[in-house]
Amino acid sequence: MKKKIAFFIPSLKIGGAERVVVNIVKYLDRDKYQIRLIVLDYNGPFKKEVPNDIEIINLGRKRVRESILPITKEIIKFKPDYVFSTLGYLNFLLILLIKVLQIKTKIIVRESSTPSKYINQLPIIKKKLYSYLYKSLYPKADMIIAQCNSMQEDLVNNFNIDKNKVATIYNPIDIESIKFKMKQKNTFNINNVNIVAVGRLVYAKGYDILLHSISLLSEKYPNLQLHILGDGPLKEDLIQLTNDLNLNKHVNFLGFTENPYPYIRSADLYVLSSRWEGFPNTLLEALACGTNVVATNCKSGPKEIIGDNNYGYLAKSEDPISLYEVMCMALNEKKDTQKRAEDFSINKIIKDYESLFDSIIDG
Question: For the domain 176-344, what is the CATH superfamily, name and number?
Fold first, then answer.
Protein backbone atom coordinates (compact mmCIF):
# COMPACT_ATOMS: atom_id res chain seq x y z
CA MET A 1 0.00 0.00 0.00
CA LYS A 2 1.24 3.47 -0.88
CA LYS A 3 2.18 5.80 1.94
CA LYS A 4 0.33 9.11 2.04
CA ILE A 5 2.36 12.32 2.20
CA ALA A 6 0.84 15.78 2.68
CA PHE A 7 3.20 18.60 1.70
CA PHE A 8 2.30 22.03 3.09
CA ILE A 9 3.62 25.30 1.65
CA PRO A 10 2.27 28.88 1.89
CA SER A 11 2.31 29.55 -1.86
CA LEU A 12 3.97 28.67 -5.16
CA LYS A 13 5.80 31.98 -5.42
CA ILE A 14 9.52 32.04 -6.21
CA GLY A 15 11.53 31.11 -3.14
CA GLY A 16 14.13 28.57 -2.07
CA ALA A 17 11.76 26.54 0.12
CA GLU A 18 9.05 26.49 -2.53
CA ARG A 19 11.52 25.37 -5.20
CA VAL A 20 12.75 22.49 -3.01
CA VAL A 21 9.21 21.24 -2.33
CA VAL A 22 8.27 21.38 -6.02
CA ASN A 23 11.41 19.42 -6.93
CA ILE A 24 10.66 16.79 -4.29
CA VAL A 25 7.04 16.21 -5.36
CA LYS A 26 8.12 16.07 -9.03
CA TYR A 27 10.60 13.26 -8.45
CA LEU A 28 9.23 11.14 -5.59
CA ASP A 29 8.44 7.56 -6.60
CA ARG A 30 4.73 7.42 -7.48
CA ASP A 31 4.68 3.65 -6.91
CA LYS A 32 5.58 4.16 -3.25
CA TYR A 33 3.84 7.41 -2.30
CA GLN A 34 0.46 9.08 -2.67
CA ILE A 35 1.24 12.79 -2.71
CA ARG A 36 -1.01 15.71 -1.88
CA LEU A 37 0.28 19.29 -2.12
CA ILE A 38 -1.66 21.62 0.19
CA VAL A 39 -1.11 25.29 -0.55
CA LEU A 40 -2.43 28.20 1.50
CA ASP A 41 -2.50 30.56 -1.49
CA TYR A 42 -2.29 28.88 -4.89
CA ASN A 43 -0.43 31.65 -6.72
CA GLY A 44 3.05 31.99 -8.15
CA PRO A 45 5.30 30.96 -11.04
CA PHE A 46 5.88 27.44 -9.66
CA LYS A 47 2.25 26.52 -10.44
CA LYS A 48 3.24 25.45 -13.93
CA GLU A 49 6.05 23.23 -12.64
CA VAL A 50 3.85 21.01 -10.48
CA PRO A 51 3.16 17.74 -12.36
CA ASN A 52 -0.41 17.06 -13.46
CA ASP A 53 -0.60 13.83 -11.45
CA ILE A 54 -0.08 15.67 -8.16
CA GLU A 55 -3.29 16.41 -6.25
CA ILE A 56 -3.30 20.07 -5.22
CA ILE A 57 -5.50 21.52 -2.48
CA ASN A 58 -5.81 25.31 -2.53
CA LEU A 59 -6.93 26.60 0.87
CA GLY A 60 -7.39 30.11 -0.50
CA ARG A 61 -5.90 31.83 2.52
CA LYS A 62 -3.33 34.65 2.66
CA ARG A 63 -2.18 34.13 6.25
CA VAL A 64 -1.28 31.09 8.34
CA ARG A 65 -3.56 32.15 11.19
CA GLU A 66 -6.51 32.15 8.77
CA SER A 67 -5.66 28.58 7.74
CA ILE A 68 -5.85 26.73 11.06
CA LEU A 69 -9.34 25.26 10.55
CA PRO A 70 -8.89 24.42 6.80
CA ILE A 71 -5.53 22.75 7.55
CA THR A 72 -7.07 20.73 10.38
CA LYS A 73 -9.93 19.56 8.13
CA GLU A 74 -7.51 18.51 5.38
CA ILE A 75 -5.35 16.48 7.76
CA ILE A 76 -8.39 14.69 9.22
CA LYS A 77 -9.84 14.08 5.74
CA PHE A 78 -6.66 12.85 4.03
CA LYS A 79 -5.25 10.92 7.02
CA PRO A 80 -1.63 11.20 5.81
CA ASP A 81 1.05 8.88 7.09
CA TYR A 82 3.04 12.01 7.57
CA VAL A 83 2.99 15.74 7.04
CA PHE A 84 5.92 17.67 5.55
CA SER A 85 6.37 21.41 6.09
CA THR A 86 9.24 23.75 5.33
CA LEU A 87 8.72 27.31 6.61
CA GLY A 88 9.07 28.36 10.25
CA TYR A 89 5.63 29.72 11.17
CA LEU A 90 3.87 26.92 9.25
CA ASN A 91 6.21 24.38 10.84
CA PHE A 92 5.21 25.61 14.31
CA LEU A 93 1.50 25.39 13.54
CA LEU A 94 1.63 21.90 12.05
CA ILE A 95 3.71 20.46 14.89
CA LEU A 96 1.18 21.87 17.35
CA LEU A 97 -1.84 20.63 15.38
CA ILE A 98 -0.53 17.08 14.97
CA LYS A 99 0.13 16.82 18.70
CA VAL A 100 -3.22 18.38 19.69
CA LEU A 101 -5.16 16.10 17.30
CA GLN A 102 -3.38 13.08 18.82
CA ILE A 103 -3.25 11.22 15.52
CA LYS A 104 -0.63 8.77 14.26
CA THR A 105 0.59 11.08 11.49
CA LYS A 106 4.33 11.71 11.60
CA ILE A 107 5.38 15.36 11.36
CA ILE A 108 8.56 16.24 9.45
CA VAL A 109 9.73 19.84 9.25
CA ARG A 110 12.47 21.19 7.04
CA GLU A 111 14.27 24.23 8.44
CA SER A 112 14.61 26.98 5.84
CA SER A 113 17.21 29.24 7.48
CA THR A 114 19.87 29.35 10.17
CA PRO A 115 17.57 29.96 13.18
CA SER A 116 20.01 31.68 15.52
CA LYS A 117 21.05 34.18 12.82
CA TYR A 118 17.46 34.87 11.82
CA ILE A 119 16.27 35.28 15.42
CA ASN A 120 19.13 37.58 16.42
CA GLN A 121 18.05 40.30 13.99
CA LEU A 122 14.44 40.35 15.25
CA PRO A 123 13.00 42.93 17.69
CA ILE A 124 13.34 41.84 21.31
CA ILE A 125 9.75 40.58 21.77
CA LYS A 126 9.78 38.56 18.54
CA LYS A 127 13.25 37.29 19.40
CA LYS A 128 12.00 35.85 22.68
CA LEU A 129 8.86 34.42 21.04
CA TYR A 130 10.68 32.66 18.20
CA SER A 131 13.35 31.31 20.53
CA TYR A 132 10.62 29.89 22.75
CA LEU A 133 8.75 28.33 19.81
CA TYR A 134 11.87 26.65 18.45
CA LYS A 135 12.84 25.28 21.85
CA SER A 136 9.35 24.12 22.82
CA LEU A 137 7.87 22.89 19.52
CA TYR A 138 10.72 21.64 17.32
CA PRO A 139 11.69 18.83 19.76
CA LYS A 140 8.12 17.51 19.35
CA ALA A 141 8.58 16.91 15.61
CA ASP A 142 9.29 13.35 14.52
CA MET A 143 12.15 14.55 12.35
CA ILE A 144 13.77 17.88 11.44
CA ILE A 145 15.60 18.26 8.14
CA ALA A 146 18.58 20.60 8.16
CA GLN A 147 19.89 21.78 4.81
CA CYS A 148 23.54 21.37 5.82
CA ASN A 149 25.73 20.26 8.71
CA SER A 150 26.23 23.80 9.97
CA MET A 151 22.46 24.28 10.25
CA GLN A 152 22.15 20.97 12.09
CA GLU A 153 24.73 22.16 14.61
CA ASP A 154 22.85 25.42 15.06
CA LEU A 155 19.59 23.61 15.83
CA VAL A 156 21.19 21.14 18.22
CA ASN A 157 23.47 23.56 20.09
CA ASN A 158 21.13 26.55 20.40
CA PHE A 159 17.65 25.06 20.71
CA ASN A 160 18.10 21.94 22.84
CA ILE A 161 17.11 19.52 20.08
CA ASP A 162 18.22 15.89 20.14
CA LYS A 163 20.85 15.39 17.42
CA ASN A 164 19.19 12.10 16.44
CA LYS A 165 16.08 14.05 15.46
CA VAL A 166 17.93 16.26 12.98
CA ALA A 167 18.89 14.83 9.59
CA THR A 168 21.01 16.70 7.08
CA ILE A 169 19.80 16.57 3.47
CA TYR A 170 21.21 19.03 0.96
CA ASN A 171 18.89 21.00 -1.30
CA PRO A 172 18.28 19.34 -4.66
CA ILE A 173 18.66 21.07 -8.02
CA ASP A 174 17.16 19.96 -11.32
CA ILE A 175 20.32 20.15 -13.42
CA GLU A 176 18.72 19.10 -16.70
CA SER A 177 16.04 21.78 -16.34
CA ILE A 178 18.68 24.42 -15.55
CA LYS A 179 20.79 23.43 -18.56
CA PHE A 180 17.75 23.70 -20.83
CA LYS A 181 16.64 27.08 -19.47
CA MET A 182 20.10 28.64 -19.42
CA LYS A 183 20.34 28.39 -23.23
CA GLN A 184 17.88 31.24 -23.71
CA LYS A 185 19.43 34.49 -24.88
CA ASN A 186 20.38 37.39 -22.57
CA THR A 187 21.41 40.95 -23.39
CA PHE A 188 24.85 41.21 -21.75
CA ASN A 189 27.57 43.12 -23.54
CA ILE A 190 30.40 40.58 -23.72
CA ASN A 191 32.95 43.40 -23.74
CA ASN A 192 32.02 44.21 -20.14
CA VAL A 193 32.96 42.42 -16.96
CA ASN A 194 29.53 41.08 -16.00
CA ILE A 195 28.76 40.09 -12.42
CA VAL A 196 25.38 38.66 -11.40
CA ALA A 197 23.63 38.41 -8.03
CA VAL A 198 20.20 36.82 -7.58
CA GLY A 199 17.81 37.00 -4.64
CA ARG A 200 15.31 39.05 -2.67
CA LEU A 201 16.39 42.55 -1.76
CA VAL A 202 16.43 42.01 1.99
CA TYR A 203 18.95 42.64 4.78
CA ALA A 204 20.01 38.99 5.02
CA LYS A 205 21.30 39.00 1.42
CA GLY A 206 23.89 41.70 2.12
CA TYR A 207 23.49 43.71 -1.09
CA ASP A 208 24.73 46.82 0.71
CA ILE A 209 27.99 44.96 1.38
CA LEU A 210 28.18 43.93 -2.27
CA LEU A 211 27.68 47.50 -3.47
CA HIS A 212 30.56 48.75 -1.32
CA SER A 213 32.75 45.99 -2.79
CA ILE A 214 31.66 46.89 -6.32
CA SER A 215 32.65 50.50 -5.60
CA LEU A 216 36.22 49.27 -5.11
CA LEU A 217 36.13 46.79 -8.00
CA SER A 218 34.84 49.35 -10.51
CA GLU A 219 38.07 51.33 -10.07
CA LYS A 220 40.04 48.31 -11.28
CA TYR A 221 37.50 47.35 -13.97
CA PRO A 222 35.97 50.50 -15.52
CA ASN A 223 33.81 48.28 -17.76
CA LEU A 224 32.30 46.45 -14.77
CA GLN A 225 28.55 45.80 -14.74
CA LEU A 226 26.72 44.35 -11.73
CA HIS A 227 23.31 42.89 -12.59
CA ILE A 228 21.00 42.31 -9.60
CA LEU A 229 18.03 40.03 -10.28
CA GLY A 230 15.33 40.28 -7.64
CA ASP A 231 12.88 42.54 -5.87
CA GLY A 232 12.20 43.28 -2.24
CA PRO A 233 11.59 45.87 0.47
CA LEU A 234 15.11 47.33 0.37
CA LYS A 235 15.08 48.20 -3.34
CA GLU A 236 14.79 51.97 -2.88
CA ASP A 237 17.44 51.97 -0.14
CA LEU A 238 19.84 50.06 -2.39
CA ILE A 239 19.18 52.37 -5.33
CA GLN A 240 19.96 55.31 -3.03
CA LEU A 241 23.18 53.64 -1.88
CA THR A 242 24.09 53.06 -5.53
CA ASN A 243 23.64 56.79 -6.15
CA ASP A 244 25.64 57.73 -3.05
CA LEU A 245 28.54 55.53 -4.21
CA ASN A 246 28.38 56.97 -7.75
CA LEU A 247 27.75 53.51 -9.17
CA ASN A 248 24.85 54.37 -11.47
CA LYS A 249 26.86 53.42 -14.55
CA HIS A 250 27.91 50.11 -13.03
CA VAL A 251 24.79 48.68 -11.32
CA ASN A 252 21.60 47.42 -12.96
CA PHE A 253 18.52 46.49 -10.92
CA LEU A 254 16.77 44.09 -13.29
CA GLY A 255 13.95 43.06 -10.97
CA PHE A 256 12.48 39.59 -10.66
CA THR A 257 12.83 37.13 -13.53
CA GLU A 258 11.41 33.61 -13.68
CA ASN A 259 14.46 32.40 -15.57
CA PRO A 260 17.74 33.80 -14.21
CA TYR A 261 19.88 31.05 -15.72
CA PRO A 262 20.87 32.72 -19.03
CA TYR A 263 22.12 35.70 -17.01
CA ILE A 264 24.08 33.46 -14.64
CA ARG A 265 25.55 31.35 -17.45
CA SER A 266 26.76 34.42 -19.37
CA ALA A 267 28.24 36.16 -16.33
CA ASP A 268 31.94 36.30 -15.62
CA LEU A 269 31.12 35.85 -11.96
CA TYR A 270 28.19 34.97 -9.72
CA VAL A 271 28.33 36.58 -6.26
CA LEU A 272 26.47 35.66 -3.08
CA SER A 273 27.03 38.39 -0.47
CA SER A 274 24.71 37.12 2.28
CA ARG A 275 24.94 37.83 5.99
CA TRP A 276 23.29 34.45 6.61
CA GLU A 277 21.64 31.72 4.58
CA GLY A 278 19.88 28.42 4.90
CA PHE A 279 21.57 26.57 2.07
CA PRO A 280 21.67 28.89 -0.93
CA ASN A 281 19.91 27.37 -3.95
CA THR A 282 21.14 30.15 -6.23
CA LEU A 283 24.74 29.23 -5.46
CA LEU A 284 24.04 25.61 -6.41
CA GLU A 285 22.30 26.77 -9.59
CA ALA A 286 25.28 28.97 -10.51
CA LEU A 287 27.54 25.93 -10.18
CA ALA A 288 25.22 24.02 -12.51
CA CYS A 289 25.48 26.87 -15.03
CA GLY A 290 29.26 26.48 -15.04
CA THR A 291 29.84 30.02 -13.77
CA ASN A 292 32.65 31.04 -11.45
CA VAL A 293 31.22 31.75 -7.99
CA VAL A 294 32.14 33.90 -5.01
CA ALA A 295 30.28 33.63 -1.69
CA THR A 296 30.65 35.00 1.79
CA ASN A 297 31.56 32.42 4.40
CA CYS A 298 28.33 33.04 6.28
CA LYS A 299 26.19 30.67 8.32
CA SER A 300 25.19 28.41 6.77
CA GLY A 301 25.98 26.53 3.63
CA PRO A 302 28.50 28.30 1.36
CA LYS A 303 31.59 26.64 2.85
CA GLU A 304 30.00 23.19 2.61
CA ILE A 305 29.20 23.87 -1.04
CA ILE A 306 32.47 25.49 -2.13
CA GLY A 307 34.87 23.76 0.25
CA ASP A 308 38.25 25.37 0.84
CA ASN A 309 38.03 27.33 -2.41
CA ASN A 310 37.84 24.03 -4.31
CA TYR A 311 34.79 24.88 -6.41
CA GLY A 312 34.63 28.64 -5.99
CA TYR A 313 35.90 31.39 -3.71
CA LEU A 314 34.99 32.28 -0.14
CA ALA A 315 35.18 35.79 1.31
CA LYS A 316 34.85 36.84 4.93
CA SER A 317 31.28 37.49 5.99
CA GLU A 318 30.15 41.13 6.20
CA ASP A 319 33.53 42.38 4.97
CA PRO A 320 33.40 44.49 1.77
CA ILE A 321 37.19 44.58 1.40
CA SER A 322 37.51 40.81 1.65
CA LEU A 323 34.69 40.40 -0.87
CA TYR A 324 36.44 42.82 -3.23
CA GLU A 325 39.76 40.98 -2.94
CA VAL A 326 38.17 37.59 -3.53
CA MET A 327 36.23 38.85 -6.57
CA CYS A 328 39.51 40.12 -8.03
CA MET A 329 40.99 36.65 -7.55
CA ALA A 330 37.95 34.90 -9.06
CA LEU A 331 37.97 37.08 -12.17
CA ASN A 332 41.44 35.81 -12.96
CA GLU A 333 41.06 32.08 -12.33
CA LYS A 334 38.34 29.66 -13.51
CA LYS A 335 37.09 26.78 -11.36
CA ASP A 336 35.35 23.59 -12.53
CA THR A 337 31.96 24.26 -10.97
CA GLN A 338 29.65 21.92 -12.91
CA LYS A 339 31.28 18.78 -11.52
CA ARG A 340 30.45 19.95 -7.99
CA ALA A 341 26.82 20.65 -8.97
CA GLU A 342 26.31 16.95 -9.67
CA ASP A 343 26.56 16.25 -5.94
CA PHE A 344 23.28 18.15 -5.48
CA SER A 345 21.40 16.63 -8.42
CA ILE A 346 17.72 15.92 -7.72
CA ASN A 347 18.30 12.33 -8.90
CA LYS A 348 20.76 11.84 -6.04
CA ILE A 349 19.06 13.90 -3.31
CA ILE A 350 15.59 12.40 -3.87
CA LYS A 351 17.00 9.03 -2.77
CA ASP A 352 18.05 10.62 0.51
CA TYR A 353 14.52 11.95 1.04
CA GLU A 354 12.90 8.62 0.21
CA SER A 355 15.24 6.77 2.57
CA LEU A 356 14.40 9.22 5.34
CA PHE A 357 10.65 9.04 4.71
CA ASP A 358 10.69 5.23 4.69
CA SER A 359 12.76 4.99 7.87
CA ILE A 360 10.37 7.28 9.75
CA ILE A 361 7.25 5.49 8.54
CA ASP A 362 8.67 2.03 9.18
CA GLY A 363 10.08 3.15 12.49
Answer: Glycogen Phosphorylase B; (3.40.50.2000)
